[in-house]
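Progress against Task 2.4 (sequence-to-structure conversion) is shown through the following example record, which the project officer requested during the mid-term review.
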Amino acid sequence: MPEHAISGHPHIEVRHSDVHGAGAFALCDLPPGSLIGIYTGRRYSADEAHGEDWDNRLTYLFGLSDGTTIDGAEGGNATRHLNHACEPNCQAQEEHGESGQLVLRIEAIRHIRAGEELFIDYALNVDANADPQDYPCRCGSVSCRGTLLAPLVTSA
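Structure tokens generated for the chain above:
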């Protein structure tokens, strides 16, 4: 395992990101389809409230299609440090694990060079009245939406 690799995630390291706080970076070249890691943390059921001490300024929450939420801040791993980009190089894929429970795989969607920061598109879904400026994007890509919110779907 490389010197800076994280246990259980031999292909990534967490360090300072120019985009936001800490980020996850590739330690080696990764071809498309490479498993970056499984997003882990405390699970909340669809009807279970987040703890009273939940910090809504820095969150590692990932909602799944079955209504559960994974809180990477509680028992999570290095995958929680993937920052947002409007042109991501990774994606989150749901699949059923051995127990039948949904798991969230983080995979490369294109070739990633060693040293490159790993990104997913957060595509946040929030209240319809939310102001996109309350969720600013700092990715700096040419096609940046300017927000972490999911792209608006327009009907033709």
